[in-house]
User: Fold these one by one.
Assistant:
Number 1:
Amino acid sequence: MTKNILLINPAYTHTEGSIWREVASNYPPLGLAAAAALLEKHDIPVSILDLKVEHFSSDKLASKIREINPQIVGISAITPTINEAWHIAEIAKKTLPESLVVFGGTHATVMPQECIENKYVDVVAWGESEYTFVDLCKINDLSKVDGILYKNRDGKIIQNKDRMPVQNLDELPFPAYHLLPMHKYQPALGNYKRLPAMIMLTSRGCPGRCTFCYSGIKEKNIRTRSAENILAEIKFLKERYNIKEISFYDDVFTLFRGKVVKICNSIIDEMLDISWSCMTRINLIDEELLKIMKKAGCYSICYGIESADETILKNIQKDIDLNRAREVIKMTKKGGIRARISLMFGNQGETEETMEKTINFALETNPDMVQFNIASAYPGTELYLWAKEKGYLSEKTWDQYDYSQYTVKLPNLSEEKVREYYKKAYKRFYFRPKYIVQRLLKTRSYYDIKENIFAVKGLFNFFKSD
C-alpha cells in the first residue's frame, strides 16, 4: 500500500521586543517543499500544511489531519518553533495513534535525543532528509532507513547510520510550490522592491566558520546547483506564479563567481524582467561583478559584518577586514545597488565600548539598511557549546531564540545593557535627519512609499515594546 504523508510547518511568532516582530516575513518552507517534490517524483501522495500562514486552532488541525489521514506526519523542527512542533506531534498522535510522527530540521539534527525522547515522536531524521522521507514511505523496516533515530516496538531508541548529503543538487526537482498557499507569502519589510516575490536556494554548505552559526552547514562539502538549473526555476516561477522578484537565500551567493556571471549574462541576454537580492561576504565581491549583477537586476546585497571590533571578529571566527568592508559598502552604493549590513551585539568579548564601536561603524559607513541582532546561542553552534561550558547560557526558552533575546549571559554585560544598545542602535541609525532625507530622495515607487510608512510604524512599535 502506498503511504500518504503530511508535512507540517509550525507557526512562528517573534518575541515581544524583537524588530523582526514588526517587519517579519512570510516565506515558504522550502525544506518541506523540496521533500514534497521528491516524494511526488516517487509517486508518493503528499500534502503540506504551513501553519505559519494558515492559522489553525488545535481542533481544526486535528480535523485536517483526520481528513488527510496520513500514515506519516513529518514536522519541521527548528529551534524557535520546537515547542510548537511538540504540540503538533501530540495532536497528530492523539488524532491518528497508528501514524508515524517524524521530526526533521536543524533542531532535530543537533538535538536528536531531546526530540526522540518526546513521547509523541517516533522518528527523528537528521541532516538533509529529502531521500530519508522517501525511504520512510517505501521501506517498512525502520532499521534499514539511513539518517534516522527511532523507537522500536519495545520503546528502545535506535540510531541508524548517517545518510550521505545530496551531491548533485540538480537531481532534485524544484520545490512543490503548488502544495503551498503562494498568495500568502511576502518578504520582510525593506527586503523587496516588487511583488510578488519569492526566495530561492542555489547551494548548500558555507565556507564560513562563524561561531554563532549552525555548524552543520560549515562543512567542506559545499555544493551548488548549475546556472542552467537555477535559471529554469526562475523562469518557472515567473511563468507559473508571475514572480517579479527573487531573494537568493544562500549564505554566500557569490561564492561560485562563474555561476553568478553565467546567471547574470543569461538574464541579460534573455531580457528576463526580474529584480533580485542576495547575501554574500565582503571578500567575494568586486567592482566588475557588481556591474554585471546590477545590469542583471540585482538591487540589494546584504553583507554579514557582525562587529566593528577586531577582537570580537577573531573570537567569532569572522574572517573579514573592516577596511575592506568599508570599501565594499561604498563600492556597492556607488554601483547603484543597495548595501545592507548585518551587525550583532552580545558575542564573546562584548563590552559597552565594543557595542558603541559597532554602532559608530554603521553611522560612518552609512549603508542603505542595517539589521542589528543580539547573539543567540543556538544549539549546534560553537557559541552554544562555549556558553554551556562556561555556564553562560541564559534560562530563555527555545521559542525566545530569535536574535532579539540575550541568550548568552556574559559576566561583564547585563541583559538590560545589551537591550539598551540594541534599541539605541536602531534609533541612532534610522532616525538621523541625514538618513531620513536620503530615504525620501530615493523614493521612486508605490513600494518605496509603503516601505517608508510601515518602517516608521514598525520602528515606533519596536521602541514602545519592553
Note: The mean pLDDT is 90.
Number 2:
Amino acid sequence: MCQHECVQSALTEAVVSLHEPVAAGMWRMILSIPLWVGSDPHPGQFLMLRVSTDSDPLLARPFGISGFTRKGEGADLEIMYRVVGRGTRIMENWRPEQKAAFLGPLGKGFSLPPEGSSSLLVAGGVGLPPLLAFARNMEKLGRIGELSLVYGETSRDRLVDMGSKIFPDVETATCTEDGSCGTQGLVTELLETKVHGNGCHLFVCGPNPMMSVVFRQTANRCQTAQYSLEARMACGFGVCSGCAAKMASGDYVRVCREGPVFDGSELSQESFGEI
C-alpha cells in the first residue's frame, strides 16, 4: 500500500500515556498502542479519535499526527490539539491510563522535496502538528538543515515553545498579532520577508483564510507548494463526502480521502473556503 495512504480499517485501541499542556489551551497527547499493524504514518496524515464511548458526542474528531515511535510490537502516536469545542473539552480532562480508540492513519500526506533543496514550513496556530511530523521525519533522514519555519499565533502564551524538546532544531521565525513575542503581525506578513525568488519548496498548514493569503502571495515564487487543507470531517475516509473542496479543475474532491495535503498546482482560491 502507498505510504501516502496507509489506512487501518478498524478502530485501534490505545491508552493515554502522556497528556500535558504545551501552550495556552494547547495540549500534547501520546497514545500508546500495544500492537501496531501496518506502516508508519506519513507526515501530514491524520486520525479520527473517538472522544466518548457512547453516542454523545457521536462523531469522532480529526487530529493531525505530530509524532510516531515504534515500541517493540506496539507504538506511541502523538497528537497536539487546542481546546475549542465540546469534544476537545472532554479530552482536556483525560488522564494517563485513559482508554481511547481511533481510526487511522488516514488521508494523503506530504511528499518529500528533492534532497539538498531548501524548504519553508508555514504554520498558523494549530496548523503546527502536521509540520512538526514533517520536520521530525526530515531530522531522521539527516535533512533538518534544509528546513526553516515561519510560525504565527495571536499572543506569546499561545505559542508552542520552539526551544523545547518537542521540536527539532529548525531555524524558526515567530510572530504574534499583539507583538508579545517575535515580530508583531500576521504570519502572512512575516512570510513576505522570507520568500525570495522561486528557489524554495513550501509546506503550509493553518486556518484556511491564512492559507488562502499564502496561496495568493506566493504564486510563482516557489518551486513547489503543498497545503494541508482544513475541513469539517464526519467519517474521515470519504464515505459521507461532507468535506468536499473545489479544485482548480472545477472538480470537487474529498479532503479526508484525496487530501488533506494537496499540491498547490491543484488548488485555486476557491479551494480555501472558510469552514
Note: Residues 1-8 have pLDDT under 50 and may be disordered.
